[in-house]
Q: What sequence folds into this?
């Protein structure tokens, strides 16, 4: 065990060696206004058993989210995950694996990355995907930087219907790079081609759109792709739930240049916010500007198939002026979960999940629309989320419903001015008719009375 000097004499000697007169000088850069100007009030040290008991007391003060029926989405989704997914993913050889720099030692992890990339390309109908990113927000930001590098332009046009947190991360990434962000307003919850056309010019590197968008609405991706391409810009398509493409036209069929999204919905539990799974995919011609790492298949000297890292464009591996990003790792375990999930449900399963989510969402929309004082805000088509106008502040409604056992949705006043009385509600295939009916009744008690018990659901939508 290393000896750590603790006596005043030893401390003063250390300060002398590093050229500092007093311990406070080490914190000179911290403003005095934010420093703690008193002795830190700590409890006496506890033995191990006491620490465990104390932490248990703290944990008991938390609410039990597992007891709440989830109608909250906004970028994180409560899809059903077959138990086999994490039984396989948490096997020791995957759980303890490290970065696969030595191909001869890491064939299992490299193959898992290759299979993940292949499935993502098939789901999105894109040419190439990398071995994953940090999360959806940083993937969108990396895609914007990638578009800047490809076009040598410095403006990014982004719809206000893209997830607000994605836009916040994008602003953080791009400000020091001199990239100008231009917001595009939405009409009836959707982004219009005319609004995008007015925002683009000959400096626009990319148009960033989300499908389905943050309000749950279905965007006309092809129309906006045409507008972007006519201006010489690229189309970056974000998505918080790629399972939507089990039903919707995939990005590759809509002239999307770069896809950047969140893969939590694909086999990863909610986990109170992470770790999550960033996805980025693009055209073959753009692959050398893709951030992160790419796994490829090859053959060895004996002609046997093997897997290697074929593209690593981060600063650690190549000259800085030729690198694409400082992304230093990925989310390999979460990507493996996505691969196992997709392999278990297959093509038909992905479509089935999307269909059930859509049907159940429309059932709940009808139920809520029948409650006096409530209204569905946007008229256009939606996937598994929709916006409800509430008779009272949405945050108040959500708090009341939490007391009745529901995660009611996302109060939009948190992100948008003038939307304090708007609630973003989500329905996935995991919700049952009984849960939806009880949720509608709870909404009625919080702000109005229900007109009816609701129509019967078809057996295929009941779940």
A:
């Amino acid at each position: 065990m290393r000896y750590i000097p603790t006596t005043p004499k030893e401390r003063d000697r250390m300060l002398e060696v590093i050229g500092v007169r007093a311990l406070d000088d080490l914190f000179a850069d911290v403003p005095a206004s934010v420093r703690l100007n008193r002795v830190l009030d700590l409890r006496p040290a506890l033995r191990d058993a006491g620490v465990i008991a104390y932490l248990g007391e703290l944990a008991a003060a938390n609410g039990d989210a597992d007891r709440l029926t989830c109608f909250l989405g906004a970028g994180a989704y409560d899809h059903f995950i077959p138990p086999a997914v994490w039984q396989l993913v948490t096997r020791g050889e995957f759980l303890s694996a490290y970065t696969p720099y030595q191909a001869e030692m890491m064939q299992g992890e490299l193959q898992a990355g290759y299979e993940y990339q292949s499935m993502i390309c098939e789901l999105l109908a894109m040419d190439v995907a990398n071995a994953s990113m940090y999360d959806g927000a940083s993937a969108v930001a990396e895609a914007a930087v990638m578009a800047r590098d490809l076009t040598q332009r410095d403006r990014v046009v982004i719809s206000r219907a893209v997830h607000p947190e994605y836009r916040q991360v994008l602003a953080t990434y791009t400000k020091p790079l001199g990239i100008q962000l231009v917001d595009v307003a939405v009409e009836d919850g959707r982004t219009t081609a005319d609004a995008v056309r007015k925002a683009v010019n000959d400096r626009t590197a990319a148009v960033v759109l989300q499908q389905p968008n943050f309000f749950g609405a279905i965007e006309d991706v092809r129309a906006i792709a045409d507008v972007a391409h006519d201006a010489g810009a690229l189309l970056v398509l974000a998505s918080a739930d790629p399972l939507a493409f089990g039903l919707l036209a995939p990005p590759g069929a809509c002239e999307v240049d770069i896809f950047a999204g969140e893969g939590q919905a694909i086999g990863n539990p909610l986990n109170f916010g992470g770790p999550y799974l960033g996805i980025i995919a693009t055209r073959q011609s753009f692959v050398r500007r893709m951030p992160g790492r790419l796994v490829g298949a090859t053959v060895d000297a004996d002609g046997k198939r093997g897997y290697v890292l074929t593209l690593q464009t981060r600063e650690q591996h190549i000259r800085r002026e030729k690198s694409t990003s400082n992304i230093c790792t990925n989310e390999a375990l979460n990507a493996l979960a996505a691969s196992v999930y997709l392999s278990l449900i297959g093509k038909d399963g992905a479509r089935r999940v999307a269909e059930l989510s859509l049907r159940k969402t429309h059932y709940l929309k009808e139920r809520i629309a029948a409650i006096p004082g409530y209204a569905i805000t946007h008229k256009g088509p939606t996937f598994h989320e929709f916006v409800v106008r509430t008779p009272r502040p949405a945050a108040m409604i959500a708090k009341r419903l939490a007391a009745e056992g529901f995660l009611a949705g996302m109060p939009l006043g948190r992100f948008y001015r003038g939307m304090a009385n708007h609630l973003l509600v989500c329905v996935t295939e995991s919700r049952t008719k009984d849960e939806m009916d009880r949720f509608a009744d709870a909404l009625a008690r919080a702000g109005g009375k229900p007109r009816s018990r609701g129509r019967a659901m078809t057996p295929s939508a009941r779940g």
User: Anything to note?
Assistant: Residues 66-78+347-462 form a domain with the Aspartate Aminotransferase, domain 1 fold (CATH 3.90.1150.10).
